[in-house]
Structure formats: structure tokens, C-alpha cells
Amino acid sequence: MIYLNGSKLSINDMEAICYRDEKVEIDKESMGEVEKSRYAVERIVKEGSTVYGINTGFGKFSDVRIKEKDVDELQLHLIRSHACGVGAPFSKIVSKAMVVLRLNALLKGFSGVRPCIVERLRDLANEDIIPVIPSQGSLGASGDLAPLAHLALVIIGEGEVYDGSKIKETKEVYKEKGYEPLTLTAKEGLALINGTQAMTAMGVVNYIKAEKLANQADWIASMTLEGLEGIIDAFHPAIHQARGYPEQVEVAYRIREITKGSNLITKQGEKRVQDAYSLRCIPQVHGASRQALAYVKEKLEIEMNAATDNPLLFDDGETIVSGGNFHGQPIAIAMDLLKIAAAELANIAERRIERLVNPQLNDLPAFLSPNPGLQSGAMIMQYTAASLVSENKTLAHPASVDSIPSSANQEDHVSMGMIGARHAHQIIENAQKVLSIELFCGMQALEYRDKKMASPSIQRLYKEGRSVAPSIQADRVFSKDIENLADWMNKTTFDFGC
């Protein structure tokens, strides 16, 4: 059980909740803060004070005063009108992450919602009633309005939810599980949709996958190093300590440990003096990507515990401030950086693939073919890797430097953070397939060398990998091998001892 209080949620917690179905519960003290802020909203409505989002319109309509009798209806119109998302839905895991993050933000007690709203969000997460949320339509300020409006629809019994692998109407699932739709009251609609939880949820899922991929990249690069009889001297600890980047030092250490005991690894001068950069500079390149991942993690964990709606209530409602915490620029920049980090893992991997298949760059059979000429072997695998890497280069264009004014120029600078998060996800998916191709080619190279000469750790990786993608005995449809290896990498952690 993970207790949420708006302040201490971590990436590890989110991984447990979203991937291992850990249940969540509301911290009692935090619920007390929720109650205080709600009392303040009710006082404002009763007194008739003019406060944005409580008894005014939204965006450019902020100067339109709403009558007391209409403040609840205002929230319903807000949710329905803002549910303009389009495109394929987010994965169930991303949508669940959104529910949890929105719940955690409301528990800070600055948003003015009733306890029943946070309890419903908790129940949606725990009962696996996960909203179906279209993935396109957010500008990233004022937060992720369109995606979060689709989340809020489920609270009022509208929209759709995942039911296992199926999609059903929310009202149907509510009836099956005995839930009643909630009627939103003053400020609650705005509190639910005004925030960065969509881009942050996508960012959390991206980070979890990218971190795993960075670890796998070290293993797969180590296999390639052995398959090409690479020079271990370039990984000497003194070189990396001399530069001083901890992540670079860590990658070099991992490569040394993974290849320990190998009879394929060489010393400088034995076969050549230096390797190409794609082998020699693995710690520098992989390490730089890990530096970026550390930055991304830091920003995500801050945002996961942030109050990002507007206005916010402080001092038990005595201080009400309109600001711009919904602006997604911190996450937009983090996602753009994550795109670069993941793209570079694939970029250098594709160059290693080329060295594995190109007969002018190694002494292996051309394109790792069992019968070069008659059979093409892994020739077109490199084409596919090159295509994916090139696609990543276009996706890596920063979204955070773009902006389009909205709401009649009231909202005249936006973050496009959701676009950055979605593109980061695509890059990570592509990078995973590139690394699966490198893994396949690395295993084939080991067979031509003699896999028994590889390090014990690489032999274990080879054994597991071959259970997913068999050796090339003759040309076949390799597409399935690439997809199967990528799917296996997605489900497993490379922990083969080293």
C-alpha cells in the first residue's frame, strides 16, 4: 500500500502502482487539508466574492461573472466543452498514472475540491476503472486541459473506461461495480483539468522505459564489443575518472564487469591499436544519456508532487492567488532532453550494427549470412535500424521551443509539453527496436566467433536472447525476430550477473 499526501510520491512508487498494481490510500492529514480548502471555496461562493474559476468564466471569459445558482453548472460545461481530445488513446498504464498524479496533486490541499472527489480518484486507481483518454489535443498550458477533461468525464459518469482489455461506457461499468456519478460543484471541474498530469504521466512512463533501455544498451553494447573482439583498454577506470562524469565512470565499470572473463575481448595492439568511436566511446555516449535521464527524473519527481492548477488557496483560504503553475515548460524541456538521450542510444547502436554486418569493417561473414550472396542474412536489418534512427532525428526536434497563442491571445505562450512527451515515447519505442537488432546481430557474431569464449555474463544473455530469436540457419522473415526481441526487452530486466 502506498500512502499519498501530495509531497512524497516517487518514480519507484509510480512503477509499483502502474506496473505491479500496488494499491494507493489517502493520508489522513492530507485529507484534512483538502477539507480546509473546500470550506474556503464554499465560503467564497456564499459571500459572493469574485474569484477566477469559482464564479467567473475561463480563459478569455475570466471577466464574465457567473451567478451563484450557476456555479455548479459552470463546472459541468467546462468538462464537457474541454473534452476535445483526438487520436489514439493513451495506454492504460499512462491513463492510470494520470489518475494517480491528479489525486496526489489535489491532496496538497490547495485546490478546493471536496473529499469525495479525491476518494473517487483513489477508487478509480484501485478498482482498475481507468479512463480512456485521447492522446492528442493538449497545448501544455493551461495544463493538459483536453486529456484531463476526458479523465474528469469518468468522475461524472460519462466517457469511456478500460475494462480489462476492452473499452466500455463509464455508466455501464459504474452500474456493474455499484458506483454513482458525482456532480461537480464550484471549482472542482477546473481543479481536475488545470494541471500538467497528462504530460507528467507520459513522462513517468517514458522515464521508466528509458532507464531500463539504458541498462540494456550497456549489455547489448558489451555483446557487440565481444563479437567484434573489441579493445578493453578504452574502458580503463583511470580514463573515465580523469574526465570526472560519474555516469561515464559507471558505464565503463559496467562494461568491464559484463565482459569479465571473456576470451574474445582484446588488448590494444593485439589486433588493432584503437577501435572505432561506436565501440571506444560507449561510456562517453551512454553516460551522457544517463546524465540526461538523471535530470529528467529530478524534474518529474518535483512535478509529480506539485500543485499545478489555478487559482490556488493558501492560509486556509484566506489567500487566493491566480498564477501559472499549470504551464508545462519544465516538463516540456525535460521531455525534449529525454528525446535526445534516447535517440543517441539508438544512434550509436546503429553504428555498431553496421560494424557487425559490414564485411569491410570486420572479419565476419558478410552481413552475418550463413551463405553470403545466396542469402542476405542481416543486411536489411541494418536498413531498418537506419530508418528508425533517421525517424528519431525528426522526432527529436524540440517541442518546447514552439508556441501558438490560444483563448483569444489570453493564453499567448504555451509549452507543447504533451507533444514532447508523446514524441519521446515514440523515440524510445524506436530505440528499443534498434537495440533489439543490435542484440540479434551480436548473438549471430558470437556464434561465428565461438560463443563459449564469451564472458559468463554475455553467455547468459546469449542463452536468454536465443530463446526468443533463433540463430540464422537460412534467410527468413526477420521482422518477427526484431519485434519478439523488442517485446522481450520491454518485459525483462537484464540481470544476468556480472
Textual characterization of the structure:
This protein is mainly alpha-helical and 498 residues long. It has 2 domains: 2-195, Fumarase C, Chain B, domain 1, CATH 1.10.275.10; 203-491, Up-down Bundle (Fumarase C, Chain A, domain 2), CATH 1.20.200.10. Helices cover 55% and strands 6% of the residues. The protein is built from 18 helices and 9 strands. The strands form 4 sheets. Strands 4-6-7 form a 3-stranded antiparallel β-sheet. Strands 1-2 form a two-stranded parallel ribbon. The chain has a two-stranded antiparallel sheet with strand order 3-5. α1 links the parallel β1 (2-4) and β2 (24-26). α4 runs antiparallel to α5 (115-126), α9 runs parallel beside α14 (329-357) and α9 packs parallel to α16 (417-449). The chain is elongated, with a radius of gyration of 26 Å. The model has no long low-confidence stretch (mean pLDDT 95).
Structure summary:
The chain has helices spanning 11-19, 28-47, 71-82, 92-106, 115-126, 145-155, 170-177, 188-193, 197-227, 237-243, 246-258, 277-280, 282-304, 329-357, 379-395, 417-449, 456-466, 479-491, and strands spanning 2-4, 24-26, 86-89, 130-131, 134-136, 160-163, 166-169, 312-314, 319-321.
